Structure formats: C-alpha cells, structure tokens
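Reference record:
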Amino acid sequence: MAVALWTSACPTMTYPLYQADWGISTTTVTWVFAAYPLTLIPVLLLLGHLADHLGARVTMLLGLVAQFAGVLLFAVADGVPWLLAGRALSPAPCCPSSPGASRSPRSWAGACTSGCSCCSERWGPSPRCGCSS
C-alpha cells in the first residue's frame, strides 16, 4: 500500500518538467494534477467493495496492474492526454487495497455481524464474508 500511495504522489514533481519541455500552460498542469481527485471519488465508490467480492489478493494484484499501467503511461507520455490517463489510473491501486475503502458505514456501527462491507444494503450479502443480512 505504501508503494501505491507513493506512486500516486510521485509524478507531481515532474509536472514542472513537462510544462517546461512541452510548453503547456499552468491551467493544463492543474487539470493533470486534478485528474487524481476527480478519479478518486468514483473509484472509491465503485471499487471500495471489490475486495469483499474478489478477495484481497486478487484486488491487490489488479491494483498493481493498474499502478504499473499508470506508471508506464507517464514513462511513455508524449502529450497531455497520456498524462491525464496516467494520472487517472493513479487512484486505482490505492482505493481497493486501503482498509477504509472496503468498509461501509453500517459495518463501522456494528450493524453487520461479521463487520464486513459486503452486508451493506447497496451491494447485498457476499458469500466471501459469510454475512446473512
């Protein structure tokens, strides 16, 4: 998880280099930087429960693949769309693998006997957790 968090923050140091080399505006650099939080919220909402359904190992492996793809896009970037795509992939490995992302508010309150988010009303019970309600 530390590597995922590090690689999500690390590219920001290179944005001034891209700006100087490619002659892009400060506004464009800001949009590239903003691609992370704009992607983070949907990824948290859509992939937060993925570990409950697929398992932690599979989810971590999928996150590492997405992380590698994002880093690769930054490495081969030759324009702003590549940077945006790489930055948009940055939250993918962090969210499903973070412990808080896979917990629903109901499980924090102890509403689910097993304490897993698969018991949330939105997703329904998951056979992986053994939730009955």
About this structure: Residues 12 and 30 are 10 Å apart (CA to CA). Helices lie at 2-9, 15-22, 26-47, 50-54, 56-76, 80-89, 91-97, 105-108. The chain has eight helices and no strands. The longest helix spans residues 26-47.
